[in-house]
Amino acid sequence: MYFSLHRMSLHKKKYSEHLKSLPVLLTQDRVEEIVAWLKKDGTLYKKVTKVYARKCITREKTITITSSGIETVNIASSGDYIIKNQTTAGESYILKEKIFLERYQFNREIDDTWSEYEALGKIYARSITKFVLKQMCWPEKFLICTQWGENMVCQVGDCSIKCVYLSLQNE
């Protein structure tokens, strides 16, 4: 257990140092521009994979790890929901209760801790490809600033659905 936690903290330190070298291209003040771009050039999707979720009881750190490494580190407050995707990466993330209840519908209980939920609504997204990077004059790796104020890495192979999360409050 100590070894894996130690490795995680070393990985997080390197990740934090790496973030400092990347430009922040997509920020909250560009939400309308990003949404317009996604509606024009993106595809409308409905999330079909269900998620596991649980309500946070006390403050809790959640590290979102995807196949490309650490994506975000956040602290959930009492009442927030911790969501775990049913994907191979099984990434976890946090949503405020109000937002969670607007976006997800209860499906069934899994155990004493987790329940399964189905996503509501649809979302625009665009894959980040080399063509998109060239078209938008973006570097190979850059940061987007989330609505909760944390920077997330965006690169070829990612989906710009991350960018849409910036704007869901405005839709």
Assembly form of the protein: single chain
User: Largest sheet, if any?
Assistant: 5 strands, antiparallel
Return Rg in Å.
17 Å
Number of H/I helices: 5
Q: What strand order characterises the main sheet?
A: 7-6-3-9-8
Describe the structure.
There is one protein chain. The chain has helices at residues 2-20, 31-41, 97-103, 130-136, 161-165, and strands spanning 24-26, 43-45, 51-55, 60-66, 69-76, 81-85, 92-95, 104-109, 115-119, 123-125, 141-145, 151-155. The protein contains 5 helices and 12 strands. A 5-stranded antiparallel beta sheet has the order 7-6-3-9-8, covered by helices on one side. It has 171 residues and is α+β, with helices and mostly antiparallel strands. The radius of gyration is 17 Å and the shape is globular. The longest helix is centred in the N-terminal third of the chain and has 19 residues, at 2-20.
Task: Give a brief description.
The chain is built from five helices and twelve strands.
Key structural traits:
disordered C terminus; 171 residues; 12 strands; 5 helices; disordered N terminus; three-stranded mixed β-sheet; alpha+beta; globular; five-stranded antiparallel β-sheet
SSE layout and pairing:
Blueprint: H1 2-20, E1 24-26, H2 31-41, E2 43-45, E3 51-55, E4 60-66, E5 69-76, E6 81-85, E7 92-95, H3 97-103, E8 104-109, E9 115-119, E10 123-125, H4 130-136, E11 141-145, E12 151-155, H5 161-165
Parallel strand pairs: 1-11
Antiparallel strand pairs: 2-10, 3-6, 3-9, 4-5, 6-7, 8-9, 11-12
